[in-house]
DNA sequence: GATGAATGAGGTTTCATTCAT
DNA sequence: AATGAATGAAACCTCATTCAT
């Protein structure tokens, strides 16, 4: 079973995760204290330690929610022919994964220095690298590689840096995806087949 | 002889800034303690407080180094005709500004959550917004606006996320700029003159 | 067996209050550090913060012990006819209240500048004012009003400035009360009934 | 000469005293830092140390201003016959001394705990005791002694606790003196001549 | 499934003071 | 007559964590 302790796992665990993510996202990981989390939940700090071994553990548990879908996406991409259609479908699926875990993602984006030193840092970095490797062609030009990297980062940045663009969220999200798809297409076009 | 008045008038202030930036960059703002900074300089913590009113003040003083050039760039752009050539020159100059303050910029990029809650947050945000406003045409399509924003963020991300691209730094920097210029050109092209 | 629920449920909170009052009284509020309090109790400073939110909070908790009885006294006086007998009974009861919280009162008397800037300052001031207002007749002469004020302050000063008067404490206390009663009687006598 | 350093002593010294007294009086001795004093004078902290050896020294120099007149008063009283007229004249002169050094006096009154531990503490205490000894008759009743003490403290308290009595300052001051004179007269009256 | 009580380490900041210039 | 630079000590306070109950 996926639930280690109890068939019907206490919902406190999930409430802790929710509040923690909210606060981490709002003020950053370091500035969010376990006291704050506990207070907002109206439990004691000690209660948090019943559900999680450490503060970092709360974050790890959150990151796992993002890791799964991305791993699936990578596995899928590896099973496909390495062509433009696959790459673009990757971006589409990545867009879904990101928007399904938007608050966590915002947190990662805004707390890179912290995340880097935590155990989830390596795990995130390796997944982004994996995606990047699959988007770019090994021997393409530097600017083609930059285009692929930019496609990825445009999607990351697009999740929270579009406040000063008018338009409804879905429209913006679509536009971001379109730009990313475009960048990858341009990168691909510049590669001389051979 | 080079310094006319005081032969060896304290360079401690600058040394504090240097070490602070180095450590902030390395471990993040919150995880860098004043004790660490002081120890590495072999002065007491109190000495830091002689030169800076608070920890945040050290950061503010560093940020001012970036703000100046960017403000000049904005002022210049405002004095120019609002056309593609101007926008592209803006990006070239922005690239210079960023690379001249690369460590500080890396710090800001990796500590957004922290910076947001500090006094420099607003100052940075408003400058990035200003640049963004000048790049995009008011009534262009959402995807054109996303392209402009992406141009900016590509430059930001490009400063530290290009480790897994081979090529010498200058070449990579040029490639990033090229991609950014391209994005702005594409955004401009999509606007029907009116 | 005396304490039904927790056989030895922490009396630390009360011990902190006791030690704090002792030290505040001895060296003043500002010169008493939390380290001293903690050391004398053989706990860590952090333990103090488990029981009290701030240093000031310790003092506030102490002041509450005095506020209660005085409030009762004021409430009682308000329910009585405003005549000399009531006023004199007020002074008697006030004397009791003061002597029941003598160390705290001594502290307040000797740390007025400190207390004034703390949250308890206003609370004390308003109670003393209330007492004063009830003692004096609204339109009596200035010297009658001074007599009432002096009655109050004689009781305050009497708590710690009688070392160079011989006699046992109870006798001195009685004498102070007598003088205060007298002063109020004189103030009352000077008012022409109208 | 009374001026140790220079015939025409710098006025900075006096300005330091003035500002220090003002701040000590306003926030208390411990809460007033040398930095504050220096900043308000627009000099550096080091400048204060040119004029005074320590922080306490500033206070001592201020207290000397009060000590002189009071010593004169005590000396005068010792040269007079010990009777009611002398005692009452003492109070009149003491009233003058107090009002001439009102801010310092307010400070002492409100910072007793601090003052007690400083070098000026003993000096003040001994003078107040001396005054008290001269007012009261050695073998009078406890309540007569309390009346004398109260006369003294009424004058002290009267300097700053009369805000809620209407009337112009001089009128209030006169009333306070009147009450004090009365108290001493009553004390005297109760002594059976022996 | 959680609490109450506490700790040890460390944080930022302030202070009175010194001393060469 | 005063400054600039620095120090050592100590202040208040917060944090993640532990553990018996």
Number of E-type strands of chain A:
0
- Compressed to H and E, one letter per element, the order of chain A equals HHHHHHHHHH
Overall pLDDT score of chain A: 91
Our Rg estimate of chain A from Cα atoms comes to 19 Å
DSSP strand content of chain A: under 5%
Q: Please estimate the helix content of chain A.
A: over 70%
Number of helices of chain A: 10
CATH class category name of the largest domain in chain A: Mainly Alpha
Total separate domains of chain A: 2
- Distance N to C terminus of chain A: 49 Å
| Shape estimate of chain A | elongated
Stated plainly, the CATH topology of the largest domain in chain A is called Tetracycline Repressor, domain 2
Largest interface: A-B, 45 and 45 residues
Secondary-structure arrangement, i.e. CATH architecture of the largest domain in chain A: Orthogonal Bundle
Q: What does the main sheet of chain A amount to?
A: none
Pfam family, one (chains A, B, C, D): TetR_N
Domain HTH tetR-type (chains A, B, C, D): 10-70
DNA-binding region (chains A, B, C, D): 33-52
Keywords (chains A, B, C, D): DNA-binding
């Amino acid at each position: 079973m996926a639930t280690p302790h109890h068939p019907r796992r206490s919902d406190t665990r999930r409430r802790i995760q929710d509040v923690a993510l909210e606060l981490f996202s709002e003020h950053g990981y370091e500035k969010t204290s376990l006291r704050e989390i506990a207070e907002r939940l109206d439990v004691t700090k000690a209660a948090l330690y019943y559900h999680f071994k450490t503060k970092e553990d709360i974050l790890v548990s959150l990151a796992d929610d993002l890791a799964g879908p991305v791993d699936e996406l990578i596995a899928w991409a590896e099973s496909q022919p390495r062509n433009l259609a696959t790459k673009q479908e990757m971006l589409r699926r990545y867009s879904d994964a990101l928007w399904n875990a938007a608050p966590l993602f915002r947190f990662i984006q805004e707390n890179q220095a912290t995340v880097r030193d935590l155990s989830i840092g390596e795990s995130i970095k390796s997944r982004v690298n994996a995606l990047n490797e699959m988007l770019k062609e090994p021997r393409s030009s530097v600017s083609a590689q930059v285009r692929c990297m930019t496609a990825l980062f445009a999607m990351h940045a697009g999740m929270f840096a579009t406040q000063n663009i008018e338009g409804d969220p879905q429209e913006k999200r679509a536009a971001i995806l379109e730009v990313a798809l475009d960048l990858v297409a341009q990168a691909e076009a510049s590669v001389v087949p051979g």
